[in-house]
Structures are given as C-alpha cells and as structure tokens.
C-alpha cells in the first residue's frame, strides 16, 4: 500500500525558488557584470528544469505547472529585460520565450491570466496565486506605466486566492524572533536620564550668566564714554565764560 506524503508540494511552493532568484538578481542590479548573462541564464533554466522534474511526482501538480510555465517564462524575460542588470539588453535580445517561438510574451501573459480568471476548475486558484505573485513583484508587461490597470487585475484575482493571502495586518512578520525577546517596558535608570539633563541645564545657566556679564561690561563702557564726553563738553563751555569775567575786571 503506497503512502501519501503528509504535506504535498503546492504550486506556489514549487515556484518559490524562481521568484527568489528574480528577487536576488533585482537586488544585485548594476553590481553584476555583463559577463554574468550566461551564468544567470543557466541558473534560471536549471530552476525551470528542477520545477518540472518535481512536478512530475504529482499528476495534478504537473498539470497545473505546465499551465503556468509559459507565464513564468514571460515574467522572467520581462523582469530581467527591464532591470538595471548590465546584461538586461542582451537578455532582451535572447529571451527564453524566443526558444518556444513566443514573440509577444508581455501581451500573452495577460491573455493567459484572463483565461485563468474565467476558469472555475480545480487548481485555478493555485495558478492565480502565481499570476498574482508575478504582478506583485513588479511585472508590467504589455501594460507598462498603466499602474491602475495592473491594480485592477490584482483586485480581480484577490477574491479567488483569499485563502492564500495573509490578511492579518496586525500579525508579526517574524514571530519566531519574538519568542526570546523581552517585550516588557523597561524604564531607564533615573541617573542615566537626570545627569545629562542637569549637565545641560548647568551649561545653559553658565552661558546665560556669561552673556549677561559681557552685555553689562559693554553697556557700562559705552555709558562711561558718554559721561566723559558730556563732562568734556561742559568743561570746554565753562572756560570762555571764565575768561570774559577776568577781562571785565
């Protein structure tokens, strides 16, 4: 009697390594060298081959994978061709889709998406998850620059894949990291807060006193100069009067 695996491989899990590789290349950006085109192409083809091989273990999974393989190829071609990678132009001229005689992948991607949206068969939701992920990672294809249309497509997909989406906005992104983290509110010691405040206050007081002393000395000096000037004028004015009195005698 054959045993069924406890957790069967799902289509989203099967395609995850491909999405991870595209994200890695996107982060790499201009840091990559133009000579890495052959390496990137070989690695991506190896991922596709591995996905196809793993899918063969489950007839239902294989059937689903074969229906999304072409959209995934269109996704990869578009993401790399429109990226900042040094070999983006070379990839655009040697798209994987060309090997399958597909010359309009950016447009056909959305045709296949619409066909899947119109389908209610078993497995369609899994395939819609793949389309949704492609759009979420930035695939624009035929609708480059038409963000509202792309958002509309994603909204059309959402009701069909609700069970796959994490709609809990209050949930923790990495719950495991909180298992050994003390989340209690730990107040800082009074000394560590009070001492810097006292030092700052003392510095401000010293600065104010110093400023007042300087202003006082400046004002006093100006006042003394004014008084001396007045006295000189008075002394000068009193001398002629004294000379006139002496002449009259």
TrEMBL record:
Name used for this protein in its record: Type IV / VI secretion system DotU domain-containing protein
Entry superkingdom: Bacteria
InterPro entries (alphabetical): T4/T6SS_DotU, T4/T6SS_DotU_sf
Keyword Transmembrane set for record: yes
Coiled-coil regions, chain positions: none
UniProtKB keywords: Membrane, Transmembrane, Transmembrane helix
Domain Type IV / VI secretion system DotU: 11-211
Record bears the keyword Membrane: yes
TM stretches of this protein: 193-215
